[in-house]
Amino acid sequence: MADTSFRATEIDGPFYDDLKIGDRFEGAPTMRLTDGMAAAHHAIVGGRLRLAFDAELSASVTGQPAPFAAPAFVWDVAIGQSTLVTREAIANLFYRGLVFRRAPAIGDSLRTVTTIVGLRPASAKPGRPPRGLVTMRIATADQQGRPVLDFHRCAMLPARRADSIGVQGEPDPPQRDMETTEIAAAIRGWDLATYRAQVPGPHFHDLRQGMAFQLAGGDLVSSAPELARLTMNLATIHHDGSRDGQRLVYGGHTIGLAAAQVTRAFPALVTILGWDGCDHLGPVREGDTVHCAIAVERLEALSGGGGLAHLRCRARATGLDGTPSDVLDWRLIGVFA
């Protein structure tokens, strides 16, 4: 009998030093947002945005017959599509400039192009393999080519060599100042007066700068690999704990739980339009419990009524041993009627 043995080709990478400025990754499958996916996503991270559950209210406020897609669902899909770059990620560090250009609906399809814009080697430490920071620009559009999201994400990747490439491009892109009208472009034409009339407050006029809230109850982190699979997140660290006995939770999972707690603190929140910034401060693991403190940092009125609230959400995770740690510093922009 002929010898049919063969040498398998290992599928891994890219590593830090495999990348160069301008590399584009656009091979992730286009994903159609469906009711089933939205329900599965909600079962894992929660959230109480009324537009995502009340089809009649959604149609009367947005003017679109298709049901509203929760923003956490949309950004998790976009981030998942960008993980062609971060299959070998060690950690995700930050996001910058995430603002919705339009609000997708159930039935829309999302396609993402990820471009390398910054590279910086991490500081060498004795006994630690080399690694580097990779900053990506993530551009997501719908089936008609209309922009949905365009933001930056930074992840840490292992390097193949200790003498890997030095600083290139923009490893830490500056936060771009945006006018209120530009931030609110995704809700242009929405009928916030109808929302205000049909939904109990507190609404925009009830908010004050400096308000702060601490939810008494937290959220258990569960179904972590299921969320990674649902959103096509390829990062091995979220799926495989065999390398070092550790499997970290996808950062979008922590953000999604934080977003759900924001909707409990502000039950009349219309939607989340974007992020002023988001930093992952520490790892989260399945079985942890996440607690959030939320503050109103700044308020901007909209010309047609209602306004934008710049909120700061700080999350702590308490492990099974009872030890708490800071895990998230998230500045988000909420719409209130």
Overall description:
It contains 7 helices and 13 strands. With about 325 residues, the chain is α+β, with helices and mostly antiparallel strands. It has a single domain (about 15-335), classed as Thiol Ester Dehydrase, Chain A, CATH 3.10.129.10. Strands 1, 2, 3, 4, 5, 6, 7, 8, 9, 10, 11, 12 and 13 form a 13-stranded antiparallel sheet that branches. The radius of gyration is 21 Å and the shape is globular.
DSSP summary, beta strand count = 13
Write down the oligomeric state: single chain
Strand content: 25-35%
Radius of gyration: 21 Å
Secondary-structure topology with pairs:
Layout: E1 24-25, E2 31-32, H1 35-45, H2 55-62, H3 71-81, E3 91-96, E4 109-121, E5 131-141, E6 147-158, E7 168-169, H4 180-183, H5 192-198, E8 212-214, E9 219-220, H6 224-230, H7 251-265, E10 271-280, E11 289-301, E12 307-318, E13 324-336
Antiparallel strand pairs: 1-4, 2-4, 3-6, 3-10, 4-5, 4-7, 5-6, 8-11, 9-11, 10-13, 11-12, 12-13
Helix pairs in contact: 1-6, 3-7
Keywords:
globular; 7 helices; alpha+beta
Précis, in short:
By secondary structure, this protein is an alpha+beta fold.
